Amino acid sequence: MAWRQLLLACCLSAAVLLTNVEQKIFMQESDASNFLKRRGKRSPKSQDEVNAENRQKLRANELRREYYEEQRNEFENFVEEQNHEQEERSREAIEQWRQWHYDGLHPSYLYNRHHI
């Protein structure tokens, strides 16, 4: 007997909750018809539509600017690293050439530098 009362109470409370939720979920018929209407091509946009489009454009521009800035920074770092490697290779090659061609009669290049 107690379980029947409990079941009845649950069903009634569920029905009451559904009627309250139904009022919050569904909109009035007039609002619903206006909600789905499309604006004509020649009719002016509302200020909300203009603001939303401007926000989207600004965000897209910001993302594009960030992307290209990141790409430029990566390329600059790559070029700088390549230049350092090339300088190091040429310095090593020059040093090897000097060691190979040093005849021992004259002071080596390191001791013959002119200090300013």
Automatic annotation (TrEMBL):
Name used for this protein in its record: Unique cartilage matrix-associated protein
Gene name tied to this protein: UCMA
Signal among keywords: yes
Signal peptide (residue range): 1-18
InterPro entries registered for this protein in UniProt: UCMA
Protein's cellular compartments: Secreted, Extracellular space, Extracellular matrix
GO cellular component, as recorded: extracellular matrix
Keyword tags: Coiled coil, Extracellular matrix, Secreted, Signal, Sulfation
Sequence ranges of Basic and acidic residues compositional bias: 45-56
Coiled-coil region list: none
Pfam families noted in UniProt: UCMA
PANTHER family, sorted: UNIQUE CARTILAGE MATRIX-ASSOCIATED PROTEIN (PTHR28647:SF2)
GO biological process terms on file: embryonic skeletal system development; regulation of osteoblast differentiation
Family recorded in the similarity comment: Belongs to the UCMA family.
Organism from which the protein derives: Panthera leo
Role noted for this protein: May be involved in the negative control of osteogenic differentiation of osteochondrogenic precursor cells in peripheral zones of fetal cartilage and at the cartilage-bone interface.
Ranges for region Disordered: 36-56
